[in-house]
Amino acid sequence: MDPRPDTALLAAALAGDGEAFGAFYRRHVRRIAAFHLARTHEAQDAADLTAETFAVALEALDRFDPARGEPVAWLFGIARHRLLQLRRRGAVEDRARRRMGLERMRLDDAALEQVESAASAELVRVELREGFDALPPEQRDAVALRVLLEHDYAELADAAGVSQVVARKRVSRGLSALRARLAGRTTS
Amino acid sequence: MSQDFFADLERQLVDAATQRRQRLRRARARRVATVSTILLAVLAAGGGLAAAVTGGGAGAGSSTGTPAGDGGGAATATTPATTPLSERTQTILSRQTVAVLNATTAPGLARGVANRLADAHVRIGNVTNAADQTRSTTCVLYAPGHEQAARRVAALLDLRPDAVVGPVTAEQRVIAGDAATVIVLVGADQNTAPHP
After folding, report:
1. Assigned architecture for domain B87-192
2. pTM score > 0.90 for this model?
3. Contact residues, chain B, for A118 at CB < 8 Å
């Protein structure tokens, strides 16, 4: 993993460092693919939109202004715009890809499945992360201590200054909130 | 070996990012070519072709094209179309005198560059040898206030934007002549490929 922040990667890429753009791509491609898959429900469209999103980003590198926000926000802005174009014209744009000399990839079933599973895994991850952040603080701490750090309930109760019953309740409430959130996601 | 979308796309993007400038330039050239084809078609259809592409005569000095009604239209149409310039570029260029100095020891290089500029209706000043004749890359200099024009001259010659290096020195000024607002120092890179 390249330790440099996104802004440094983009600056290096603009100066002709292709690998820096590769690192930026690796860091975000799954989120971008997940974004597109969640909205198109079509792995081929999601793959095309993902490729076009990064092609536009590469083409527009010199127009990225760090003073106006984070690179991720900029990238998602591009992604949203590509999606809008798809809705408007019923087909995925490929102009930036052609200008940047990228070939359009026709994906076979295995590759489509790969895109789908990577994007879905990312969706679950994002959903869990957001769900976790949205928990009330005492539940969040309880879940973190019990599930992530594997402390026992006596330690949890001790740390929070509550009884073990209360500690258990917090963990179970927190987990069921996360479960409900994920279930809501997959059925919607 | 099965397809791996993420890895394939990454490889393509890294290549494209490494060659970003070249690819952008090529894409722009393709666009210009398309636009000029369309433009020519439109003009031809409107019967205004001759009027639009005049100045085909030998006189490189006057850039005011007279609407040639002499049936020269067919001949003009077959000459390779120079990249159409925007009106603003034409206006800016029409106010310049460009000196072309050969900064190599290869004879005739400056003349060739001057001819290309003249084809685009740029007024040519002195065409002569530079004091330093060891340049490898062509660069463009300008008299104060003429940087914009220098950039456009560089673009006409398909030079990279960083070929526009700065204001002229007193010595170059003497060689180029007082009238020159833009000076092209022709380097050895003009020796290899003629105009594509």
Report:
1. 2-Layer Sandwich (3.30)
2. no
3. 6
